[in-house]
Specification:
By secondary structure, the protein is of the alpha+beta class. It has one domain. 26% of the residues lie in helices and 17% in strands. It has three helices and six strands, in the order αβααβββββ. The strands form two sheets. It has a three-stranded antiparallel β-sheet with strand order 2-1-6, with no helix packed on it. β3 and β4 form a beta hairpin.
Length: 104
């Protein structure tokens, strides 16, 4: 009985400790090595990391953003940069590697 009590007591702590994969979190630096911060305006240079496996129309929508400027609306715990489809919104619509954007 005691062993189960110890396990149950420690279980939530053990389950919440998630190790990052190798190379994560990503460095918050753009393609040119500049430091990225929340709310900064960036130019989308590539969407290759997030388009694979998506339906063709979604891939086209993402590819249309290459060359456009967007504000960084969030960095997730892995270091990915989250951007919005619309210039005027602050929604987290898709994420990219920091190296796939550059400061505008």
């Amino acid at each position: 009985m005691f062993r189960w009590a110890v396990f149950i007591y420690r279980w939530p702590q053990a389950m919440t400790k998630k190790e990052m994969p190798a190379g994560f979190p990503l460095s918050p630096r753009d393609a040119g090595g500049n430091v990225l911060v929340l709310g900064v305006l960036v130019t989308v240079r590539s969407v290759e990391s997030c388009k694979n496996g998506l339906p063709v129309e979604d891939q086209e929508r993402l590819m249309a953003l290459v060359g456009q400027k967007r504000k960084i609306v969030q960095f997730d715990r892995f270091g990915f940069v989250w951007l919005s489809f619309a210039e005027t919104e602050n929604s987290e619509d898709f994420c990219l590697f920091p190296s796939e954007v550059s400061l505008a």
